[in-house]
Amino acid sequence: MKSFFKYLGIGLLILIIIILVKTFTFKSKQMNEPQAELLSLDDSCVVRLQKAIRFKTISYDDASLIDTLAFADFHQFLIQAYPQVFSKLELEKVNKYSLVLHWKGKNSSAKPIILMAHQDVVPVEEATLNKWDVAPFSGGIKNDFIYGRGVIDDKGSMMAILESVEILLKQGFVPASDIYFVFGHDEEISGLKGAKVIAQLFKDRKINPAFVLDEGGIITEYKVPGLNKTAAVVGIAEKGYQTLDLKINIPGGHSSMPEKETAIDEMAKAVVKLKENPFPAQLGETVQSFLAYVGPEMPFVSKMAMANKWLFKPIITSSYSKTAAGNATIRTTTATTIFKAGLKENIVPGEAAITVNFRTQPGVSQQEVIEYVKKVIEDERIQISPRGEGNAPTQVAKVDDPTFLYIQRNISKFKKDIVVAPYLVLGATDGRYFGNITSQVFRFSPFTDPEGFHGVNERIKISEYKKGISFYYHLMKNWK
Fold this sequence. Notes:
Layout: H1 2-24, H2 44-53, H3 68-81, H4 83-88, E1 90-94, E2 98-103, E3 113-118, E4 141-142, E5 145-147, H5 155-170, E6 179-184, H6 195-204, E7 211-220, E8 231-238, E9 240-249, E10 253-254, H7 263-276, H8 285-294, H9 300-307, H10 309-320, H11 324-330, E11 333-341, E12 347-348, E13 351-360, H12 366-377, E14 383-386, H13 402-412, E15 419-425, E16 441-448, E17 459-461, H14 462-477
């Protein structure tokens, strides 16, 4: 027995030594860069953003509801607002409303870069109009914030890019390599006529960019669990998107004589099973990269866990599972979004149907989702039909590539001690289509903790918007 405890003690000592060694050798990947000089900007740039918000470039699933004149008018406004851009850069329109601008650089043989944003916005729910502090399409200002649908998603980025290009052109600047600007018109309805078509055009023309930068990541003061520093999360991959329609038919009848099994009851059971049996947690390649960048910047105990994921993985996954964003980061998520059944209060319906949306981890196929659902619900009476092909992106940008280091360096120049980290974008972006021409697709908007994304009171602080203009300015000016 003494020998047992002796060897147990030795084993524990060795384990503690291993944990501590890994913790103390878990080195920071951050950069200590001299701070960039912000551009001195007057409020004319703010006025232009306000005007941009007033164009109701809304995307609807029902194409007949889309006001194409709003897009055409928006284009005319852009031409007037940025005369240098639209007189000196080559403009190409794709499917009438998506814009591609080509800025020729000094070295045409060098790999170009692509900066992206989108023109369209999501609708505003009529029921929420009275909850907005400022009318959603007014571009109004309150407490130093610009309000409006699209000010964050994604006209803020688009206008900041155009502002910075206009300034550089006025200064006579010529970029080191070609720069393309891609402004899709239908990102909010999957980008099928905009970004997807443009990406194929680029592929056909053999345009192979050094990197692509689209919306996605942000700067945040508080959204990274366990981190007490400002962080900038740069998307290096994004989750996939799959939707399944489930339907069951069981003869109904009068509500005074319900059968033991009804369509609604059995479908409700399926919903509960899906909710109670989520996809397993995964610390995939992208999440591992994220933890490697934020872990060394955390307090000692959290840093120790991140440095020893082989031992503390259950604790890490448990911690991340407690929040919606954290949970979505480590697993394929399941959300029942539509439930249809019944016509009248005294009739038991003979059919019930649900729609379930899955945001998948990189590499998870539609068939894998279907098989998982079948296994969980265990009811062969339920018909499962995929809604379209969905998407299952596999592109993951390399963090040891000079392009990621370049973006990290540029972000680091705008705030001292900021933690820049690669991460997995939870939503879908137009950038996914460009994974066919380069692995180095990044997703980042240079704004801090944007508010009201797809919701009420979408807004951006004026100072943040101006910083964003400076970010794009230096990003293009310093690229070699």
